[in-house]
Write a structure and sequence with these properties.
- By secondary structure, this protein is α/β, with parallel strands linked by helices.
- The chain folds into three domains: about 120 residues, OB fold (Dihydrolipoamide Acetyltransferase, E2P) (Beta Barrel); about 250 residues, inorganic pyrophosphatase (n-terminal core); about 110 residues, Diaminopimelate Epimerase, Chain A, domain 1.
- Helix content is about 40%, strand content about 20%.
- A five-stranded parallel beta sheet has the order 4-3-5-6-7, with helices on both faces. A five-stranded mixed beta sheet has the order 8-9-10-12-11. A five-stranded mixed β-barrel has the order 15-16-17-19-18.
- Strand 18 and strand 19 form a beta hairpin.
- Helix 9 crosses helix 12.
Length: about 575
C-alpha cells in the first residue's frame, strides 16, 4: 500500500502491479474490462468463480440458517408456539433495521394466520432495546413468546424479568455482545464468540430473516419471503453493515425488487420522495430518500407508526412530514454545535463530547455523524431523558473503535451498546465530567493526531479516454456499495479546470484533459475555495456516476483535489 498526502486526504494507492498477469487472464476469461477486474481482484475476488458469483448473486448463495448458534432452539420454540397457537409479540427497535425486521415477521405471521402483535419502545420513555415496560405489556397481554429484533443482546435484566413471568425471549441481534450473553431462550447473533456462522456482519433484520428461513425449512408454509426482499435491502443499506457475503445478496436482489415490484407502501414512499424511476434500485435512494423518512417517526414521535406504514395501515404523508421536521431540528442543532466548537477549538482537539437538555434525542445521532464528517473526531452528543439520565449517541471516524472506547469507560455508564462506528450510551449527570475526561484520554491514546488525517483509498489511476458508458455499465456490476465495499475512487493527474459554476449547495466544475472534458460536481466545497482557479491544473480523485436527470450521460463526483504547482 502506497500513501501520499493530497488535498484534504491522505491518498492511499493499492499495489497491484504484481497482479497484472492475473488481471489480464481473468479479463480475457470473463470478457470484462480490465479496470473492472482490477477492482475485483483488489477487493479479494481472485478467481473466475468468485467474480461470477459476486457479479450475479442469487438466493442460492445464502447460508444455511442452522449454521447459526441457537438456531435449532429458536426454530423449535417458534414451531411449538405455532402448534400451541401461542400469540407472539414481535419486539422491534425503532430504526429502519428494527422496523423492517418487525414488518417482515408481521407479514410472515399474517401469512400463517398466527396471532401476534408488534411492539416498539418509545425512544424517550423507554430508551433503546428491550424495556421493562415492554415486558410488562407482554405479561398483561398474556404473551408467552417474544421475538426481539435488532435488540436484546444487552438486555440481561429485562430478560430475567421476562423469565420470571414465564415469557420466553428469542433475541435476533447483531450488535456487539457483552462479556456474558443475556439469559434468553435463544440468542441469535453471529457476533457471539461461540457462533461459527460463516458471516458475522448481518443486519438485525437479516438475523430475524434467518430465523424465518429456518422455520420455513422445518415447517413450510410457502411464505413468499422474496416478495418482501425490499424490506431486507433497506435494513442492510440503512444500517451500514458490511456490503459483502449475504448482505450483498440481500441488498442486490432486494434493491432489484424495490425497482421492479416494490411492496405498496414503499411504492407510495418513493412517489412522495420523488424518486426517479431509473434510480429506484440505487443505494442513494434507500439511504438518503427512503431511510430518513422511515426513521423520522421513531426519532420524533413513535416508530409504531413506521411499522403500521410498512404493513400498509398508514399513508406515507405523516412519515414525510416528520422527516421535514427532523431536518429542521437537525440543522439547528448542528449549527449551534459548530458555532460552539469554532469559538472554543482548544476544547475539541481530541474528541467532541457535549450535552444539552434541549436537544432532540432522536436527532443527535445524525448530528454526531455530520460532525465526524466535518472534524474527523470521535463524537458523543447527549441530552436528558425522562428519567433524568444523560442519554445519547456517538459516531466514530475510520480507525477508531467507538464501542471499545465506551467499554473502557463503562464504570461511569448506566448502559451502552453498539459497534465500531456507532453506539448509544446512558449515564448519570453527576458522572459526565469524569466520563468525558476518561473518554478523551482514551482518544488521545488510541486515536493520536497522525491517525486523524482522513484516508481516501484510490482504486486506480484512470485516463479520461477510458471513461465511457461501456465501462460505466460494467461498473454497475459492482453495485450495491456500502461499508467494506465502497464505490471505486479513481484518480486522474494534471487535468485543466476550464469553468466553475456556483450552484449554491455545490459547485459544477469542468475538467479537461487530452481534448476530453467532463462535467464534475464538488459538494462540501468550502475547504477548496482558496485553491479553485480557472485555467489551472489539478490532480483529482472522483467517482464516475450518471447524471441524476440524464440517464446515459456521465459525470464525475469529486472526492478530493489538489492544485498542481501550488
Amino acid at each position: 500500500m502506497v500513501s501520499e498526502r493530497r488535498g484534504r486526504y491522505l491518498w492511499r494507492y493499492s499495489d497491484l502491479h504484481k497482479e497484472a498477469a492475473l488481471v489480464r487472464h481473468l479479463s480475457k476469461t470473463l470478457g470484462l474490462d480490465g479496470v473492472i477486474v482490477h477492482l475485483l481482484v483488489q477487493r479479494g475476488y481472485r478467481s473466475a468463480e468468485a467474480i461470477e458469483q459476486f457479479i450475479a448473486p442469487t438466493w442460492s448463495h445464502l447460508h444455511n440458517p442452522f449454521l447459526m448458534k441457537d438456531m435449532d432452539k429458536a426454530v423449535s420454540r417458534v414451531i411449538k408456539a405455532f402448534h400451541n397457537k401461542e400469540p407472539i409479540l414481535i419486539y422491534g427497535d425503532y430504526d429502519v433495521d428494527g422496523t423492517t425486521g418487525a414488518a417482515l415477521w408481521s407479514y410472515f405471521l399474517k401469512h400463517r394466520q398466527h396471532p401476534f402483535e408488534y411492539y416498539v419502545p418509545d425512544r424517550e420513555k423507554e430508551g433503546y432495546g428491550l424495556s421493562k415496560q415492554g415486558i410488562a405489556y407482554a405479561k398483561a397481554k398474556n404473551f408467552s413468546l417474544i421475538i426481539a429484533i435488532d435488540c436484546g443482546i444487552k438486555g440481561h435484566e429485562v430478560i430475567e424479568m421476562a423469565n420470571a413471568y414465564q415469557i420466553d425471549v428469542i433475541v435476533c441481534d447483531h450488535h456487539e455482545p457483552g462479556e456474558t450473553l443475556p439469559p434468553a431462550y435463544a440468542v441469535l447473533n453471529p457476533k457471539r464468540s461461540d457462533c461459527t456462522y460463516p458471516f458475522n456482519g448481518l443486519s438485525g433484520a437479516a438475523v430475524a430473516f434467518k430465523l424465518l428461513q429456518g422455520v420455513e425449512q422445518q415447517l413450510p408454509s410457502h411464505f413468499p419471503w422474496q416478495h418482501y426482499a425490499d424490506l431486507l435491502a433497506l435494513s442492510v443499506v440503512c444500517d451500514l453493515v458490511p456490503m459483502r457475503d449475504e448482505n450483498r445478496v440481500l441488498a442486490s436482489l432486494g434493491l432489484k425488487k424495490l425497482k421492479e415490484d416494490p411492496i405498496p407502501p414503499l411504492e407510495e414512499l418513493m412517489h412522495i420522495a420523488s424518486v426517479k424511476a431509473h434510480r429506484r434500485d440505487s443505494v442513494y435512494t434507500a439511504l438518503f430518500q427512503l431511510g430518513p423518512r422511515l426513521n423520522a417517526m421513531g426519532r420524533l414521535y413513535h416508530a409504531k407508526h413506521t411499522i403500521a406504514f410498512l404493513l400498509n395501515e398508514l399513508s406515507a404523508a405523516p412519515l414525510h412530514l416528520a422527516n421535514e421536521e427532523r431536518k429542521s431540528i437537525q440543522e439547528a442543532i448542528l449549527k449551534e454545535i459548530i458555532e460552539h466548537i469554532e469559538k472554543h477549538p482548544e476544547e475539541f482537539r481530541d474528541a467532541i463530547v457535549l450535552w444539552n437538555p434541549h436537544w432532540e434525542a432522536g436527532v443527535i445521532g445524525i448530528v454526531a455523524a455530520k460532525l465526524v464528517e466535518r472534524y474527523h473526531l470521535p463524537t458523543l452528543l447527549l441530552t436528558k431523558d425522562s428519567k433524568g439520565y444523560l442519554k445519547g449517541s456517538g459516531r466514530a471516524p475510520e480507525g477508531f473503535h467507538l464501542y471499545q472506547a465506551l467499554k473502557h469507560c463503562k464504570d461511569f455508564l448506566v448502559n451502552f451498546g453498539g459497534h465500531q462506528a456507532a453506539a448509544g450510551l446512558q449515564l448519570k449527570e453527576k458522572d459526565f465530567d469524569a466520563f468525558k475526561n476518561q473518554f478523551i484520554e482514551y482518544c488521545k491514546q488510541h486515536f493520536p493526531p497522525h491517525m486523524r488525517v482522513p484516508r481516501l483509498f484510490i482504486d486506480c489511476n484512470l485516463p479520461f479516454d477510458r471513461i465511457n458508458y461501456s465501462l460505466f455499465k460494467q461498473l454497475k456490476y459492482l453495485e450495491p456499495y456500502g461499508p467494506e465495499h465502497l464505490p471505486p475512487t479513481f484518480a486522474t493527474h494534471n487535468v485543466l479546470l476550464t469553468h466553475v459554476e456556483d450552484r449554491g449547495h455545490y459547485l459544477r466544475l469542468y475538467f479537461k484533459k487530452d481534448y476530453i472534458t467532463f462535467e464534475s460536481y464538488l459538494w462540501n466545497y468550502e475547504p477548496y475555495s482558496s485553491v479553485l482557479q480557472v485555467n489551472r491544473y489539478y490532480h483529482i480523485a472522483y467517482h464516475v456516476e450518471e447524471l441524476y436527470n440524464t440517464p446515459g450521460a456521465l459525470c464525475l463526483t469529486i472526492k478530493d483535489l489538489i492544485l498542481v504547482g501550488k
